[in-house]
Amino acid sequence: MRAIADFAYPHQCLGCRLLVAGGLCGSCIRDFPEVGPGAGFGAEASGPYDCARQRFRFEGLVREAVHRLKYRGEWALAEALGAEIAQLFPPDLQQVAITFVPMTEKKLRDRGFDPAHLLAEAASAVVGMSPILLLARTIETPPQVSLDPAERRVSPQGSMRCRLPAPESVIVIDDVFTTGATCMEAARALKAGGARWVMVAALARSFPLPGPSRGRPAI
Fold first, then answer.
1. pLDDT, tens only, 137-192
2. Who's near 216: CB < 8 A, 6+ residues apart?
3. Tens digits of per-residue pLDDT, 101-151?
4. Does 1 map to a domain?
5. How far is 192 from 129, CA to CA, in rounded Å?
6. d(CA 188, CA 203)
7. Would residue 217 count as lying in a domain?
8. Domain that includes residue 143, residue range
9. What is the CATH classification number for the domain harbouring 73?
10. Structurally, how many domains does the chain consist of?
């Protein structure tokens, strides 16, 4: 019932407080800080994925929107945010499957929904497609927010497998790209499952700040 109500009724826009469907107006989205040219490939351009792009910088209203979706269950935000992820897709999507980085089963039970799945559904709908659940978590990993950058790079290793034979070309959707380690593990699993080309499309990219990072609310 929460999901139905969340989509059915207008909400105050997070930025300007006008009543809008989904909780974000087009004007405020246009003010989101973009990653910028030359930064879209992320920290590991030579990783197992072939392309990694991110739409916005993970700061300000972007951060608030992601946190409200993930931790407060404001599902309607996924529609507007997913539509922005779709802007990263290549123009020709023939023979390309769309999937997402899944949560662990325990986190899914605890939270009751998977934010990356919601984003993937919204992004796929823009191009008339539906996402496929191709990946599964094989082990529980510590929350990335609790780890320093070096730990984040190694923590996801071996944590995913491909549930099905992977299509030749796959786009993997995630919410926030930090070190790229989780997306790298997703790409490894997909290529082990048969994919030949993997693109990562993330809503936002978290850039490191000076000083110690442990405990900082990045994802």
1. 987 655 544 444 544 444 455 679 999 999 999 999 999 998 888 899 999 999 99
2. 145, 209
3. 998 888 888 888 999 999 999 999 999 999 999 999 987 655 544 444 544
4. no
5. 24
6. 21
7. no
8. 34-205
9. 3.40.50
10. 1
